[in-house]
Amino acid sequence: MRSTKKIVIVGATSSIAEHCARHWVQAGPVDLSLLGRDLGRLDRIAADLGVRSPASTIQTQQADFLDPATIQATVDAIVAGGRVDIVLIAQGSLPDQPACQDDLSACNDALQINAISPVLYAEAFAKHLAAADHGTLVVIGSVAGDRGRRSNYVYGAAKGLVARYLQGLQHRFANTGVQVVLIKPGPTDTPMTAHLKRQGARLAPVQVVAEQIVAAAADGTSTRYTPRRWRLIMLVIMHLPAFVFKKLNI
Residue 16: CB partners within 8 Å, gap ≥ 6? Predict the structure, then answer.
């Protein structure tokens, strides 16, 4: 009986994804596939993970994040190499809201990488997970998707799309062997949020966020806010009256 888990990480060069990978390899030998656009950085991450877990099998692959046919072919090839246990879809970027307002190309790019790309990869893997009636699909969204805010409404809209899509996917796989997990991180201390840190924002340690993502993947939690306090914070924000919300500079 196979004991080594097969894990696939899409967008593996993100800081959160890299720390999740560290947790997985340190828990025991795994068969790990890392997908991303920067092959050089993927190889450096793989080398580090190999030192942490010499018994793990770690492969890297340069990935297209936007072309549907290429995405499907990539996923098909990965699954052909063996049944997948965990898929983590982590690609994304934090766009500049004013730039998105002034330049439709910037707006399009933000929506593509933060919404369309994760959904395409999730749907491509979902077909195989359904056929096997096995596996856990984890997708990183954001608390920004819970309510539109003027400071980042393009990014929030993209993450809101991911959240609605994952809700439907969870309904599709209810009472099956497939688990679908939506992760909603609050602001996290990563290179993507360095500008927020310089502005004095309170950011969660990436190690804590990654640890909670790995735990959510293990227990199949349908939606996990991380750090956990963000569930209560967003509950309050989502229920603020419109006239109060409009006055807040958030």
Answer: 90, 140, 185, 188, 190, 206, 209, 210, 213
CB-based contact 84:126 (threshold 8 Å): no
Q: Is 171 within 8 Å of 179 (Cβ atoms)?
A: no
What is the C-alpha to C-alpha distance for residues 146 and 134, in angstroms, rounded to an integer? 29
Distance (Å) of CA 77 to CA 33, 124, 125, 171: 11, 11, 11, 27
Per-residue pLDDT tens digits for 28-57: 899 999 999 999 999 999 999 999 999 999
CA distance 43 to 47: 6
What average pLDDT does the segment 121-134 reach? 98
Q: Which residues contact 33 (CB under 8 A, 6 or more apart)?
A: 6, 7, 8, 9, 59, 60, 61, 78
* E-assigned strand segments in 42-154: 57-62, 86-89, 135-140
* Cα distance between residue 45 and residue 68, in whole Å: 26
- Rounded Cα distance between 149 and 153, Å, is 5
Q: To 5 degrees, how large is the angle CA 88–CA 89–CA 94? A: 135
Question: Which region among 80-84, 181-185, 240-244 has the lowest average model confidence (pLDDT)?
Answer: 240-244
DSSP H or E segment with residue 7: strand 5-10
SS3 38: coil
Q: Which residue has the tokens 């004095």?
A: 200
